Amino acid sequence: MINTEIIPVNHIRDFADLLDPGRDIILCDSNTAEHCVAPLLKEVPQLRYISFEAGEQNKTLKTCEEVYSKLIAFGADRTSRLICVGGGVVCDMGAFIASTYMRGIDFISVPTSLLAMVDAAIGGKCGVDFMDYKNYIGFINNNVHLFLYLGFLSTLPQREWLNGRAEMLKHGLIASKSHYISLLENLKIAENKISLQLITDSIEIKNSFVVNDPYERGERKKLNFGHTIGHAIESAALAEGKALDHGLAVGVGMIAETYLSVLSNNLDKDIANSIYLNLENYNSEAVSQISDFNTLWTFMQKDKKNRNGKLMFTLLNDIGSAKHNCEVEEEQIRRAVEFIANG
Ligand SMILES: NC(=O)c1ccc[n+]([C@@H]2O[C@H](COP(=O)([O-])OP(=O)(O)OC[C@H]3O[C@@H](n4cnc5c(N)ncnc54)[C@H](O)[C@@H]3O)[C@@H](O)[C@H]2O)c1
Ligand SMILES: [Zn+2]
Q: Nearest Cα to 49, choosing from 6, 7, 83?
């Protein structure tokens, strides 16, 4: 497992200087093509790029096939390098494509959404969704380099800030009370501004789990807090053809799993109430998209963390402390889903 080297970039020109147009091919989606790659092309007009339609519904093997075909048309060989410029969808799928094309070519992650900067581009998980199951096809292959350019956040739509903050709050909830408090304070000042310090703090928390447990055999599972119920909600929405943002699904999933932490892990009720309040935006945004329990239950039974057919959750002990591999009764999960479905 390689520890990703994060290369901070202060200006689009400096980013352009790090590229090699002879070997590099950019992968982006329709939005990052316009907002992030177009300014880069002004600096390096000869850069080649491949773009696909933005959205989680396109994080599929079918899109991968289209990208492989375009790589072949560009004459990409084993010396080529894929530069993945985008949010979590581009970073996850781009890493998968680069790792499988010709049995693996180099790639660099250039996260452009807050969520990808603090989470998706860190830790080596790459892959695509399959039959509406989230990230079902993929593996772990770390990027060697990540270019971190905060300037890209200037065009990020408002709701994507909410999405990115969900994973940052998760980092605080499972591992650092001070990070959680700093995030809430920052939010009072501005909804769509964030300091480099908060971003690097989140990256450090994620990295600390990844480095100690790269293949998610133990402690790394804590990063899945909010994701068992969150992924089920996201998958159910995908199956109905109305993709729900990953960050929103995780936000509402964290509310449900905080509720479960009270039921099954003795989390203090007052602490849980304060967490619900701080996450309430996620519930109000997602509530209309929460499917009935039976549909979610079907997806939860396919969760990648299950062991011997049993559902395993990460639950909170306190703010900044979590426990993984918690087995929870179906009835308690049902109550947690009812809790979020009632807003
Ligand atoms: N590999 C991991 O460890 C990991 C961790 C967390 C999430 N993920 C995955 O990441 C994905 C979610 O990532 P996401 O929230 O970034 O979604 P996304 O990639 O769909 O990006 C969100 C939206 O913002 C747009 N966008 C991105 N950067 C922009 C910019 N600078 N300006 C304007 N628009 C921009 C995108 O085009 C898209 O429409 C999910 O597929 C999730 O499963 C992976
Ligand atoms: Zn996530």
A: 83
Question: Within 13 Å of residue 215, how many CA atoms lie on the same side as its CB?
Answer: 2
Each residue of 273-304: pLDDT tens digit? 999 999 999 988 888 888 899 999 999 998 88
Domain, as residue range, for 17: 5-155
CATH number for the domain that contains residue 104: 3.40.50.1970
Q: What does the alpha-carbon distance between residue 130 and residue 22 come to, in Å, rounded to a whole number? A: 34
The ligand minimizing its distance to the Cα of 56 is: 1
Query: Which atom of ligand 1 lies closest to the CA of 59?
Result: 41
Residue in 30, 60, 89 to alter for ligand 1 test, most ligand atoms within 8 A of Cβ:
89
What is the average pLDDT across 238-259? 94
Q: Tell me if residue 135 falls in helix, strand or coil.
A: strand
The residue behind tokens 């804590």 is 222
Q: Which of 53, 58, 96, 115 best tests ligand 1's pocket when mutated (most atoms within 8 Å of CB)?
A: 115
List the residue whose alpha carbon is closest to atom 9 of ligand 1: 88
Tell me, yes or no, whether 36 and 78 share the same domain.
yes
Q: Which ligand is nearest to the CA of 120?
A: 1
Range of weakest confidence among 146-155, 197-206, 240-249: 240-249
